[in-house]
Every structure is written in C-alpha cells, then in structure tokens.
Design goal:
33% strand; three-stranded parallel sheet; alpha/beta; elongated; three-stranded mixed sheet
Amino acid sequence: MGNKQFDIVGIGSMVVDLIYRTPRIIGSEEKISLARHRSGELVRKLVGGVTLNHLSWASLLGLKTGIFGKQGDDENGRFLREGMDRYHIDKHLSIEKTASSFAHIFVDPMADGRFT
C-alpha cells in the first residue's frame, strides 16, 4: 500500500453474502421453494465478511481504510472489488485463479429489514 496513510487496515474475511428468503429450515433430503425479495431477486448478493463489513462502516464514518489479502479472479471477486471501490476501501490484493469466498444465508421471508 506504499506510503499511504490509513486510519485502519484489515486482513481477513472478504465474503459475498448470498441472502435467500425461506419460510423454514429444511432437512438434508428436503426441498423447498424460496420466496423472492421485494426487488424480484431470488438471491440478494451483498458485500460481506467481518473484516470487510467493519472497514466499510469505518469508511462511511470518514476514516481512511485499506485491506490486503488474496481473492479469486471470479464473478464474486469482481463483485467484492466493486463494493470496495464503492465504499472507498483502498485494496492491495493478490488475485488468484481460485474461487472467492461466499456464504449462503437464509432469512425468514416475513422479517422486515435490509434482506427483504
């Protein structure tokens, strides 16, 4: 990151959160229909991961933030890097020929909030 000055720098989880709306938790051999989000999407895709979340919040509060680590050269990696740019997080990443991290998160479709 050169000679840049930062208020906070992180290394750690950079994860795409894939949010699904489901009426209940199902068993291993069971299938269920998912509810759509208000936007019409079946899956809502968000920038996530503990480290990246905290850096995003710090940046929104006006701190100069940066992150370093490894990330995949895939669709999820590109999505995360676009999110880092949107949140003004300076990045120093080694882009690998691997998959970026993602998490499947299931929420109650009746819950009101940012996942709907």
